[in-house]
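Quick bug: Pyruvate dehydrogenase phosphatase regulatory subunit, mitochondrial isoform X3 output formatted oddly.
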Amino acid sequence: MFHRLLSVVRRQRNGRGWQKWSSVRSGAFVAEAHSVALPAEAHVVICGGGIMGTSVAYHLSKMGWKDIVLLEQGRLAAGSTRFCAGILSTARHLTIEQKMADYSNKLYHQLEQETGIQTGYIRTGSIFLAQTQDRLISLKRVNSRLNVIGIPSEIISPRKVAELHPLLNVHDLVGAMHVPEDAVVSSADVALALASAASQNGVQIYDRTSILHVMVRKGQVTGVETDKGQIQCQYFVNCAGQWAYELGLSNEEPVSIPLHACEHFYLLTRPLETPLQSNAPTIVDADGRIYIRNWQGGILSGGFEKNPKPIFTEGKNQLEIQNLQEDWDHFEPLLSSLLRRMPELEALEIVKLVNCPETFTPDMRCLMGESPSVQGYFVLAGMNSAGLSFGGGAGKYLAEWMVHGYPSENVWELDLKRFGALQSSRTFLRHRVMEVMPLLYDLKVPRWDFQTGRQLRTSPLYDRLDAQGARWMEKHGFERPKYFVPPDKDLLALEQSKTFYKPDWFDIVESEVKCCKEAVCVIDMSSFTKFEITSTGDQALEVLQYLFSNDLDVPVGHIVHTGMLNQGGGYENDCSIARLSKRSFFMISPTDQQVHCWAWLKKYMPEDSNLILEDVTWKYTALNLIGPRAVDVLSELSYAPMTPDHFPSLFCKEMSVGYANGIRVMSMTHTGEPGFMLYIPIEYALHVYNEVMSVGQKYGIRNAGYYALRSLRIEKFFAFWGQDLNTLTTPLECGRESRVKLDKGMDFIGRDALSSEMRGIVQRVAGF
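Here's what came back:
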């Protein structure tokens, strides 16, 4: 079948060619820079005239901001937006992505009425097919999340699929999910409508104007240099799509924007003999790796192949995206899958095989938020082929972030600061996006891990633990042990046991948890973020008292669990701080907080040469010694009594462990279980580990991993930031009132919000 269809295509190559199905036209609201001078000043400059840039401009102007300038190097909507397949789908695995897509759907639905510009919006609904029971389970999980936030969807039978779309072959299906309010739309026309509305609200739009670099002074955006002159500004928004990476590096102070482009293919056909109705539902056959939608009575069909083709690794390409070279051999598996699903298409004429670049990020989530290194520099890019679905919602959240200081939803999973410079290697990005693109349609089972870009950051104990059966997960580029496979287990079978049901490693983790409760285990937790804050006077204490909700004016050697809050009282970070001396503090935070926490501290710390903030994550190996026999192991190694009478809870002391001096021993475990954290200078790491394991043999010691840690801390309700706590969660909502000291004698960020919340609680209690 494939060869018959392909022969038709080859006969057409010398014919009329592809008639562009999405026109790119700009209206009177666009000023061409060669005929109109750029303004000398602006409040905000937005780079990129695609759906992201126009959405940000639209929402900023709606929120009342003035003096906004949008610059586009080519024509409006002539980048990836022009080639978008036009499918608006709300079925996403992350709740925040579902909310963004739902908002986009509602926005695009009313945009034509608001602006008078036809956007081609048609509510078609979507049908997501399942060929296996595991895929059906995955769809049921998505379906439940959609229903929770009020998006209509239901699980349907193969027979119902055939009724909704009679052309589909359903013999191999076990079920499907129907989302009736999904839609198709012309993405380029949506961008033009957003631009028109923004222009009516005062946004100045200039096309054919390239930004050369962003000007920065003392870590703050001051303006942009373009090929038509300079514009002074306080805020800059990088919505440059596939060019965002290079634009970030071109700044006077580079901004890391980890994304990379891959080729993306889809075909367009002539109308069917009986033209497909315009409201025919969009089909997503993830097991077949394809999507199908109506296009002018025919179909548009593409997919995400297992062997994607990265492009533009060497850097910036053309100003406007053109259709790239056809590659029918590469597209053949997707075409075969399409013909199996819709056999009647065998003799249908193909208009064109479209090949366009799409940008992808290291974790399949878009990039949003303010740069950690340059204040006023915001980013919205890396949409992973979902730019149309996310465009409206993402633009809204970023605009809220700029106007109010924070968005109305928790967007940490999309925050640019979840990445650091270590994820911006071109080689890393090229290899990672080759894995990411197929994952868009791969089965999403719990606890899967990326396979590319691994062993980037490792503990000094990595090889030793690996030899003892460690199986690894990755967090912020750091390798962390999940669990340890006993010698009698089948390693290959365990690595391949990806399931929604009880995993093969369950009993292994159970035994590690049992050992933590009854004997002693050691967990390598070197990946945790570690900062030291020191000063010559009281500056360190004063700034930390302002930044944290708990009272840090404690005796030397004491440890304080505390939140780093925002103005709304929500958690920006949850950490432990040990007072090493009168003027020195040691701060421990979650692994993926390294960039975000550093940026937050630098934002509020005064410019003072006597106040020093140092990232010492790499200087220390951290071993978590958990269990009732931990005190025996450490007592024997240090020749010092470690009982609660001599070493109370939440206490820190530098000690000798084995032959090694200067080990920071802390009586806490991040799990609620008894034990100690050992922060070991890296040159002593292997020695201390060997001594701990040797002495611990008589007490039943064994290695354990993060899966055991997770189980232990959940049992004790030891909440972790990013998993249980977020920027909208306050200490009073999660039983952490003891970590807030409203009466500590000085103001702190979030105090007013917590005071107001406390008064509300008191009033409600009094009402009973």
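Actually, after a second look the formatting is fine. The radius of gyration is 28 Å. Closing.
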